[in-house]
Amino acid sequence: QVALVESGGGLVQAGGSLRLSCTASGGVFSNYHMGWFRQAPGKEREFVAVISWNDAFTAYADSVKGRFTISRDNAKNTGNLQMNSLKPEDTAVYYCAVGNWAFMTTNGEADYWGQGTQVTVSS
After folding, report:
1. Which backbone phi and psi does 76 adopt, to 5 degrees?
2. Band of pLDDT at residue 27, cut at 50, 70 and 90
3. What are residue 48's phi and psi, to 5 degrees?
4. Fewer CB within 10 Å, N or C, the chain?
């Protein structure tokens, strides 16, 4: 069982930056690939980014490529999502998750989820 807690959300103006963090406990964080997802009001949850268990590989949704950077520190059981050049359409609740790479990137499924953190980008 892995417990995940996100932090770092907030209100920012368009063009600004935020750094989200995800802290894991209760399991072996380095056993899992880690992903970030988001859900905007009235929309389905969507994949944002994923990083492999050993920090060797990353993948991004086209909508955030070049603006967001995913990273992790297995020694600290943490993961991060650096978000730059934010747009109003990035407004959503952001979730971190751990699980299988293919399931996360293609089906939006994960083994464990955090509770989410709100990101609001004003125009």
Report:
1. -105, 0
2. confident
3. -115, -55
4. N
